[in-house]
Amino acid sequence: MKQNRVSEFALSILSVVEHVGLAVVTLATISAMTGEVGIMLTAGQATLADLLLMFLYLEILAMVGLYYKSGKLPVRFPIYIAIVALARFLVLDLKNLDFWQILGVAGGVLLLTLAVLVIRYGHVKYRYGDDE
User: Fold this and answer.
1) What are the tens digits of pLDDT across the range 73-99?
2) Of 54, 58, 128, 122, nearest in space to 88 by CA
3) Eight-class DSSP state of 127
């Protein structure tokens, strides 16, 4: 009995910390997104790098929203964020990268894309049970 109460208390503490962390991530993302919009408005234009950064922010917000809706976080979302981040890196630093660095970043995008495909295939082919 005492072990159950301790476990329940620990889980409730972890849940509070989790929700506070998600709130911090959400507020920081909204703040950064607002700042980026301000920079675009001041500049009077939106570059491709700006748009890709906005997509990163939106993916983070979507990931938090999905967690609150379903209570689960698909591993694909952080991979999508990583792919967009690498694409943004290529757009911003293409002139400063040599051939091997470009190839390495492109290879990273390819590997992440393959990982998403493998994960999706696994989810479709080997479905989870409702109790998992």
Assistant:
1) 778 889 998 998 998 898 888 889 999
2) 54
3) P
Q: Which residues neighbour 38 within 8 Å (Cβ) at sequence distance 6 or greater?
A: none
- How far apart CA 104 and CA 46 sit, in angstroms, is 28
How sure is the predictor about 129, in pLDDT bands with cuts at 50, 70 and 90?
Answer: low
**Tokens, residue 19:** 């929700």
Q: Which residues contact 54 (CB under 8 A, 6 or more apart)?
A: 33, 36, 37
Burial 55-85 (b: 16+ CB within 10 A, else e): bbbebbeebbeeeeeeeeeeeebebbbbbbb
